[in-house]
Amino acid sequence: MSQQAYVTWYTDNPRLDPVQVCQAFISLLGVTTADYVYRSNCIARSLDDPNWELSCVGEKVAADQLPALLQPNTHLSVDADLAPFGTALEEAIRRGIPAEILGDFIPDRPFFNIGEHYFADAADELDREIRYRAMVGCWGYSTPADWEDFRREFQALPFVREISEKLKSLLGEMKVGIYFYF
Questions:
Q1: Full DSSP string of 142-166
Q2: Nearest-CA neighbor of 108 among 80, 140, 78?
């Protein structure tokens, strides 16, 4: 069974302009080309909405073409595995979080999502379903050896605080979320 864990910044602000968000995320991550782009057929009403489907709408899409893929009442998901942000985040994590907390978890694959959706913030064992309209972050295989300490240490990293402030100046307050899939 595969495990994927995500570290993210997200917001549910309905007043954000999706094109502005897309451009801010492209800039933040340093995206030149998106590896894969997926779009939903509708807005999910819950994590297990049977009507919600995701389809690939592009591979190796130039960054300047991404805003044109946004459509009302859909969810756009952009994978940018090679964007420089992943390497910068990996370096910050390796420098700032002890190996006994980190384990073999390295979230170094950048992505962003625009459009209403949900995730289950399972890092604290409450499995809260959290709605968002814009999300940016990185994912990786595996999970931290110690979720609670990882969450605390991650949010204390100077790089993470710097990114939070940068996003706040561009898009307003964004929360940090950590979640995983099995």
A1: S--S-HHHHHHHHHH-HHHHHHHHH
A2: 140
Closest CA to 43 of 14, 5, 7, 4: 14
List 79's β-bridge partners, or say none.
36, 111
Contact between 178 and 150 under an 8 Å Cβ cutoff? The reply is yes
Q: What DSSP string runs through 73-110? A: T--EEEE-TTSHHHHHHHHHHHHHS-HHHHTT----EE
- Tens digits of residue pLDDT in 88-109: 999 999 999 999 999 999 999 9
Query: Is the CB of residue 12 less than 8 Å from the CB of residue 42?
Result: no
Where are the domains positioned within the chain? Answer: 30-42+62-177
Q: Which two tokens stand for residue 147?
A: 């979720």
- Across-strand partners of 136? 9, 112
Question: Residues 113, 28, 88, 99: is their CA dihedral positive or negative?
Answer: negative
Which residues of the chain have a pLDDT value below 50? 1-2
